[in-house]
């Protein structure tokens, strides 16, 4: 029932967001093409917006995946933490320590810089 | 049963979200006026006139946007804000949706916010919007870990991933004192999630508005509304995770939650006005090298404190 309510709230909010846009916009004429040129402070669009970008933080996203996997184990771990006591601390401590070495290595390799 | 479990939650979430978003604009206007930024009109009326203006404005378009995604992105961002607010408990009994895994749900809202904001910049098919979107992804992928470690920290003493249990576990002492690093780190996450103030990398002035640079009219209204609504949802989560939610003397529970949410909002908006914008290329280093280790410290602190 909770999930159903949540889904209902999601749908209503999304519907409201679309309705606020659709109601006033449905009668508006489309702007002319010169007006629809991409906003570049008056400059001419010389490159396509979907031209290839170098995503400089790409290695950082890989590091994130390692941590996100760890997060998956961390949710059930959080629930049994007090029950398991010191054992839980050690296990997650080891896991985090190994991943932290990854951060230090990534830092040395300049993963967190863009330039 | 239908009334209690379906209609009441929807009405509650809608009212808090709409009134909250309006109050965000009012408080921000008041802070701006107090700090010396010239304001048009009174703080109470200005958001309404601006909303009406956007609603009736002739909307511009770009040459070949991804129409469906472009219209959907603001609506989805609003929907995410509503979903996030739906797990905030207002009292032991008044909880829109009392999921057993509400902390996980909030985490997914944070993750999906990154997707939606990228979609907003990508679908416009213009350069500045796309740069804003790419910048935001770098920020979004950096703050999400901090947020998760800090929230796991509050889940440890509660032995549960349910926000109502998290609030109940703060009966003796609020988490803001018990885990002193938690709230400051979480506030940074909040500014990042709504790309507000110092972490406004997606819609920043140096990109002439970033992902919203070509958005005008009703779509822009929904986008701004969704941003403010997300800030409200975030303040609700912060109030229940760190400030003891409905706990407090004399006043009834829901009122305490609202007061704490307003307090968190005021602090966030003040920070947003006072702090300069972080350089995008330094932001990732700051998050991973400084703030993420701090969130480890917070987690260890919370763990040790929970075992003692």
Automatic annotation (TrEMBL), chain A:
<dbReference type="GO" id="GO:0008137">
    <property type="term" value="F:NADH dehydrogenase (ubiquinone) activity"/>
</dbReference>
<comment type="similarity">
    <text>Belongs to the complex I subunit 3 family.</text>
</comment>
<keyword id="KW-1133">Transmembrane helix</keyword>
<feature type="transmembrane region" description="Helical">
    <location>
        <begin position="62"/>
        <end position="82"/>
    </location>
</feature>
<keyword id="KW-0520">NAD</keyword>
<keyword id="KW-0813">Transport</keyword>
<keyword id="KW-0874">Quinone</keyword>
<dbReference type="GO" id="GO:0030964">
    <property type="term" value="C:NADH dehydrogenase complex"/>
</dbReference>
<comment type="function">
    <text>NDH-1 shuttles electrons from NADH, via FMN and iron-sulfur (Fe-S) centers, to quinones in the respiratory chain.</text>
</comment>
<dbReference type="InterPro" id="IPR000440">
    <property type="entry name" value="NADH_UbQ/plastoQ_OxRdtase_su3"/>
</dbReference>
<protein>
    <recommendedName>
        <fullName>NADH-quinone oxidoreductase subunit</fullName>
        <ecNumber>7.1.1.-</ecNumber>
    </recommendedName>
</protein>
<feature type="transmembrane region" description="Helical">
    <location>
        <begin position="88"/>
        <end position="107"/>
    </location>
</feature>
<keyword id="KW-0812">Transmembrane</keyword>
<dbReference type="InterPro" id="IPR038430">
    <property type="entry name" value="NDAH_ubi_oxred_su3_sf"/>
</dbReference>
<dbReference type="GO" id="GO:0048038">
    <property type="term" value="F:quinone binding"/>
</dbReference>
<keyword id="KW-0472">Membrane</keyword>
<dbReference type="GO" id="GO:0005886">
    <property type="term" value="C:plasma membrane"/>
</dbReference>
<dbReference type="Pfam" id="PF00507">
    <property type="entry name" value="Oxidored_q4"/>
</dbReference>
<feature type="transmembrane region" description="Helical">
    <location>
        <begin position="6"/>
        <end position="25"/>
    </location>
</feature>
UniProtKB/TrEMBL annotation, chain B:
<dbReference type="GO" id="GO:0003954">
    <property type="term" value="F:NADH dehydrogenase activity"/>
</dbReference>
<feature type="transmembrane region" description="Helical">
    <location>
        <begin position="228"/>
        <end position="247"/>
    </location>
</feature>
<dbReference type="Pfam" id="PF00146">
    <property type="entry name" value="NADHdh"/>
</dbReference>
<feature type="transmembrane region" description="Helical">
    <location>
        <begin position="134"/>
        <end position="156"/>
    </location>
</feature>
<feature type="transmembrane region" description="Helical">
    <location>
        <begin position="176"/>
        <end position="196"/>
    </location>
</feature>
<feature type="transmembrane region" description="Helical">
    <location>
        <begin position="6"/>
        <end position="27"/>
    </location>
</feature>
<feature type="transmembrane region" description="Helical">
    <location>
        <begin position="253"/>
        <end position="271"/>
    </location>
</feature>
<keyword id="KW-0812">Transmembrane</keyword>
<comment type="similarity">
    <text>Belongs to the complex I subunit 1 family.</text>
</comment>
<feature type="transmembrane region" description="Helical">
    <location>
        <begin position="283"/>
        <end position="304"/>
    </location>
</feature>
<keyword id="KW-0520">NAD</keyword>
<feature type="transmembrane region" description="Helical">
    <location>
        <begin position="72"/>
        <end position="91"/>
    </location>
</feature>
<dbReference type="InterPro" id="IPR001694">
    <property type="entry name" value="NADH_UbQ_OxRdtase_su1/FPO"/>
</dbReference>
<dbReference type="GO" id="GO:0009060">
    <property type="term" value="P:aerobic respiration"/>
</dbReference>
<protein>
    <submittedName>
        <fullName>NADH dehydrogenase subunit H</fullName>
    </submittedName>
</protein>
<dbReference type="GO" id="GO:0005886">
    <property type="term" value="C:plasma membrane"/>
</dbReference>
<keyword id="KW-1133">Transmembrane helix</keyword>
<keyword id="KW-0472">Membrane</keyword>
């Amino acid at each position: 029932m909770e999930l159903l309510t949540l889904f209902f709230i999601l749908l209503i909010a999304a519907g409201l967001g679309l309705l606020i846009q659709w109601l006033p916009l449905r009668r508006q004429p489309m702007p002319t093409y010169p007006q629809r040129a991409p906003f570049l402070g008056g400059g001419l669009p010389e490159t396509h917006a979907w031209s290839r970008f170098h995503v400089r933080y790409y290695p950082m996203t890989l590091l994130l995946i390692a941590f996100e996997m760890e997060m998956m184990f961390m949710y059930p771990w959080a629930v049994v933490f007090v029950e398991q006591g010191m054992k839980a601390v050690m296990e997650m401590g080891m896991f985090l320590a190994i991943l932290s070495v990854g951060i230090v290595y990534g830092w040395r390799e300049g993963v967190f810089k863009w330039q | 049963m239908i009334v209690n479990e379906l209609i009441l939650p929807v009405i509650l979430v809608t009212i808090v979200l709409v009134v909250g978003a309006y109050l965000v604009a009012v408080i921000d206007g008041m802070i701006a006026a107090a700090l010396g930024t010239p304001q048009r009109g009174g703080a109470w009326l200005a958001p309404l006139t601006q909303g009406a203006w956007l609603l009736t404005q002739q909307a511009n378009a770009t040459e070949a946007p991804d129409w469906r995604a472009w219209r959907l992105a603001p609506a989805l961002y609003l929907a995410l804000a509503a979903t996030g607010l739906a797990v905030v408990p207002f009292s032991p009994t008044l909880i829109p949706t009392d999921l057993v895994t509400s902390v996980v749900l909030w985490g997914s809202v944070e993750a999906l916010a990154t997707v939606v904001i990228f979609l907003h910049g990508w679908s416009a098919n213009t350069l500045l919007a796309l740069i804003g979107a790419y910048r935001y992804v770098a920020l979004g992928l950096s703050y999400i870990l901090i947020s998760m470690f800090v929230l796991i920290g509050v889940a440890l003493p509660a032995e549960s991933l349910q926000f109502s249990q998290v609030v109940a576990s703060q009966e003796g002492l609020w988490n803001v004192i018990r885990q002193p690093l938690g709230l400051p780190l979480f506030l940074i996450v909040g500014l990042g999630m709504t790309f507000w103030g110092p972490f406004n990398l997606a819609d920043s002035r140096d990109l002439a508005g970033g992902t919203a640079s070509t958005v005008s009219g009703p779509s822009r209204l929904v986008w701004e509304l969704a941003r403010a609504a997300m800030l409200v949802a975030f303040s609700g989560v912060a109030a229940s995770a760190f400030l003891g939610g409905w706990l407090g003397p004399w006043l009834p529970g829901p009122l305490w939650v609202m007061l704490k949410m307003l307090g968190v909002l005021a602090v966030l908006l003040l920070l947003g006005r006072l702090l300069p914008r972080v350089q995008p290329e330094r932001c990732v280093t700051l998050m991973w090298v400084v703030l993420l280790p701090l969130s480890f410290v917070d987690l260890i602190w919370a763990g040790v404190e929970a075992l003692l």
